[in-house]
Structures are given as structure tokens and as C-alpha cells.
Amino acid sequence: MIAVSPKTIVLRWALVAGAFAGLLAVMAGAFGAHGLRHIVSERGLEVFQTAVSYQMYHALALVVASMMPALRLNHRLLTMACGFWLAGIFLFSGSLYLLVLTGAHWLGPVTPMGGVCLMIGWALLAAAALKR
User: Which positions, given as ranges, span the membrane (predicted)?
Assistant: First the structure.
């Protein structure tokens, strides 16, 4: 049997969040492909697909990161990376979904903040790997 450390258990939230975000990305992708095709513009569909793609990429990153304590990476930095990815999914993909579905253009400035969160998450992952 594999011993489970407290650090592994703490990152279990990242696995759950990643799995849930992946599920929602598949559902959103299907909705975009089938439910929005005749409702929004071609550009709107492209924006929606961008949101779905980034959500799925970062859902997978959360799932993989949840397993990284086995590599003995810096736990604090790894946990922070996951937090930034989750925030980035909400801000980046969430604002694009709402922008396409509601036309609320005031959400435009939120999207880059989400992108910055996603980038910070990747930088923190690199830092965790370097600071073993």
C-alpha cells in the first residue's frame, strides 16, 4: 500500500477541482458546439471555444499538479499554483462565457486578470520545481 502524506491529502482539492473543471469544460464545449451555433456570431463561438480550451488545459494542470507531491516539489508553491489556476479559470474562462452569453462588455477587463492568474500559476509551478 502507498503511504499518503498530509501534503498529498491537502492537494486532493486540486484533483477534485480539476476533475470538476474538466467536466464543465466538456459540457460547455458541447453546449457551444450544439446550443450556441445558431444563437451567437461566429466570433462569439470562437471566443466561447477559447474559454473552453483554456479551462480544459488548466483543469488538466490541476489534476497533474495534485499528483506532484510524489515528486517532492515545494508544497507551498505547488498549492499556490493550483490556487492561481483555479482563480484564472473562473476569471478568464468565466468572463468569456458571460461575455458571449450575456453581451456584458464590462467584463472585458476581467479576462486579462484571469490570464495573469493562469500565467502566475505556471510561474509558481516552475518555482516549485526549481526549489526542491
Answer: 56-73, 85-107, 113-130
